[in-house]
C-alpha cells in the first residue's frame, strides 16, 4: 500500500524539481519505505537540518506538523523564515514507523510500536500502547536499557527490542544519519503529547554541553553519536485533554507553534560555533544556555501575530 503522505512528497519534488528530491532511508519490517524529502534552496549550502516524526505510530499530529514545515520552507513569504530555509539543507522524514502508522488507521488507533512480531512471547491479545512490536524510540544504543523508561518485556509499550538496532526502521534511520554525517547541525524530532521542549541527555541530571537535562533516548543517540550541536524533541499539543486524539482545528496552530522556532536555529557561519544568529546572544537563565533560551523564548509557543504564516 502507498501512504498518502508519500504521494504528497512526490508532488513536492515535481513542483520544485530544482530544490526538492525524495529519498528512501530504508524499509520497514513489512517492507514499506521510509520516504522523505531533501530541500536545498541555496546551491552552496552544506550544513544540514533533519526533522522527523511518527516514530510512535499513534502520534498523527507530528506528521501533519513535519509536512506543514516542509511546505512552509518552500512557500513562505516571511523573510526571516526564507533566510533560515536557505541557510541549511533540510531533510524531512515524516514517518519513521510506516507499519505502525498504517495500522493506527485501519486496526488500532492507539498503537505505538512497529509491527515486528516477537517470536518468544505472544502479545496479540494486547492492544493500544502495548501489543506487538518494538518501541522504536527505545531501540537505539546510547544507554540502551541502562536506566528507567524502557522495558525488556515484549508486550510493554516501551519494549526496547532484544538488542539495539534490532528493528529495520532504527537501522534505516542510522543509515540516513551516516550519510549526513558531521554536516548535521540541527536535529528536531517531533512527538506528542505534553507541550514540552526536551533536550538530551535523559539518563543523567548532569548538565551537558549547551543545555540542561530532559528525556528522550532517541535524540540522545543522535547527540551522542554525531555530536550535533542543536538537538531537540518537541512534544506537541496538547497536555492531556484530547491526548493523541487531537481535534482537527488544532492541527494548524500546533504546526505554527513548531514552525515559529525554525528561524532561530540558523548556525553562525564560523565553523564549529553553536551560537545562533541575531547577535548579541541573550543572557541565559540559570542552568539554560543562550542557545536554548533563544529557541524557547523567541520561538516555540510564541508566535507573534505579525509573523503568522497563513495556511495555503
UniProtKB/TrEMBL annotation:
GO terms for biological process: proteolysis. Its cofactor is Zn(2+). Residues 1-269 form the Peptidase M14 domain. One of its GO terms (molecular function) is metallocarboxypeptidase activity. One of its GO terms (cellular component) is extracellular space. InterPro entries: CARBOXYPEPT_ZN_2, Peptidase_M14. PROSITE patterns: CARBOXYPEPT_ZN_2 (PS00133), PEPTIDASE_M14 (PS52035). It holds the Pfam family Peptidase_M14. The active site is at 235 (proton donor/acceptor). Keywords: Carboxypeptidase, Hydrolase, Metal-binding, Metalloprotease, Protease, Signal, Zinc. SUPFAM superfamilies: Zn-dependent exopeptidases. Belongs to the peptidase M14 family. This is Zinc carboxypeptidase-like. It comes from Agrilus planipennis.
